[in-house]
Amino acid sequence: MRTHHLKELVESIKKTEEMISLHKDDELTLVITQYEALKAKQVAEFIDELAKPPFQSVESFSLINLIINKYYPTINSDRVKQKDLRELALTI
C-alpha cells in the first residue's frame, strides 16, 4: 500500500515539474511559485515516508538523496545560508 502511494507521489512530482517547465517563461510568477510550493510539499512527503519504518534504511536514504539531487540540483543561497549548512555539517 505505501509503495503504491510512493509511486503515485513520484508521478505527481514529475507532473508538477513538467508544469513548472511549461510555465517557466510565462510572466505569471505566481503560478510558478504555486507549483514550486506544491513540488516542495510533495518531495517533503516522499522524504518523510522513506525516512520512517518499514522503508527506513540505507537504501531509502539513497533514494532521498537521489530525489533531492534530481529536483533540487542547486540550492538557492537566499533561502539557505551556506555558512549555516557548513556549521550544521560540522556538528554531525
From TrEMBL:
This is Uncharacterized protein. It comes from Mucilaginibacter dorajii.
